[in-house]
Specification:
The complex is a heterodimer of chains A (about 230) and B (about 80). Chain A is built from five helices and eleven strands; from the N terminus they run βαββαβαββββαβββα. Chain A is α/β, with parallel strands linked by helices. Chain A has one domain (about 1-225): Class I glutamine amidotransferase (GATase) domain (Rossmann fold, 3-Layer(aba) Sandwich). In chain A, the strands form two sheets. A nine-stranded mixed beta sheet of chain A has the order 2-1-3-4-11-10-9-6-7, sandwiched between helices. Chain A is globular. A three-stranded antiparallel beta sheet of chain B has the order 2-1-3, with helices on one face. Chain B is elongated and about 45 Å long. Classes of the chains: A alpha/beta (about 230), B alpha+beta (about 80).
């Protein structure tokens, strides 16, 4: 399986993602934002970081960079595109997934482990994951998911919510919402579910001695689903 | 020609920064403030000399980049 990770000026989780993808069997290529052509890929990842210094709105500049037109075309033709953290912010700015990510409700940068409940497994990202709840890491200042009421209805009607913040038992409540996101939303799909944007970092949970293994579960499963 | 644009958050969107600014103003003794909403201001200096054409272009800029229409409104201030 071939993957591509796009590096924007200010990306800082691109190499972590490269390590994670390779660890679980992807042949990964790093792609520079100013390139126009995407290498042949089964998965394209927009990594975390602070692309363009978060100027104007997080992800807004990166969403207009040269490579993004190829990424958008790839996604629109059914290609798997995953945006993590700043990658999620870039995805919402392209319009590939609905909504926006606002400043965290309590105005603080949040850096901690969280639990997320998988809301829908009828997709290549979470199909066959045995767990209902995964422990991932978040580190962001603008992760407060917001959308209009009409968009929310559409997202719910199409089961586009991928994961919600919850406690270790999968209980989705306000007190487990770290950033004020509507409905505790931590990640969403596009309608066709080939595009996934999420704030948590699975690539930070791939080594038991450093963190945890729930990211390993996620990547192992992902590559099997793509085969 | 210089054209100015003001971007504001839509009414229903939470503005935590505005809220904190409001609280701080309150703490400083400005007790009669009802609400503070923070926005953005741009000055765009364009080569276009026709003011209608320039406004149309700036409107396109607002829609495509400067504002995110899910959460923000934009207002173009007439060029002088």
């Amino acid at each position: 399986m071939k993957s591509s990770v796009i590096t924007f000026p200010g990306s800082n989780c691109d190499r972590d993602m490269d390590v994670a993808l390779k660890k679980f069997g992807f042949k990964n290529k790093m792609v520079w934002h100013a390139d126009t052509e995407l290498p042949k890929s089964d998965l394209v990842v927009l990594p975390g970081g602070f692309s363009y210094g978060d100027y104007l709105r997080c992800g807004s500049m990166a969403s207009k960079s040269k490579i993004m037109q190829s990424v958008i075309n790839f996604a629109n033709s059914g290609g798997m595109v995953m945006g993590i953290c700043n990658g999620f912010q870039i995805l919402v700015e392209t319009g590939l997934v609905p909504g926006v990510l606002l400043r965290n409700k309590y105005l603080e940068f949040i850096c901690k482990n969280v639990f997320v409940k998988i809301n829908d497994k009828r997709n290549k990202y979470f199909k066959n994951v045995n767990n209902e709840v995964l422990e991932f890491h978040i580190a962001h200042n603008e992760g407060n998911y917001f959308c209009t009421n009409d968009q929310l209805k559409e997202i719910e009607d199409n089961s586009q919510i991928a994961i919600n913040y919850c406690d270790e038992n999968g209980k989705i409540e306000d007190q487990f919402n770290p950033n004020g996101s509507i409905k505790n939303i931590a990640g969403i799909f596009n309608k066709e579910k080939n595009v996934l944007g999420m704030m948590p970092h699975p690539e930070r949970m791939i080594d038991n001695s450093l963190s945890g293994e729930d990211g390993s579960l996620f990547f192992k499963n992902l590559i099997n689903n793509l085969k | 020609m210089k054209i100015s644009v003001v971007i504001t958050l839509k009414k229903d969107v939470l503005d935590p920064q505005g809220k904190v600014i409001h609280q701080t103003l309150d703490g400083m003794g400005f007790k009669d403030v009802n609400e503070v909403r923070q926005g953005k201001y741009f000055e765009i200096d364009t080569k276009e000399t026709d003011s209608d054409k320039a406004k149309t272009k700036v409107e396109e800029m607002c829609k495509k980049l400067l504002a995110n229409l899910v959460i923000e409104n934009y207002k173009i201030i007439d060029p002088k």
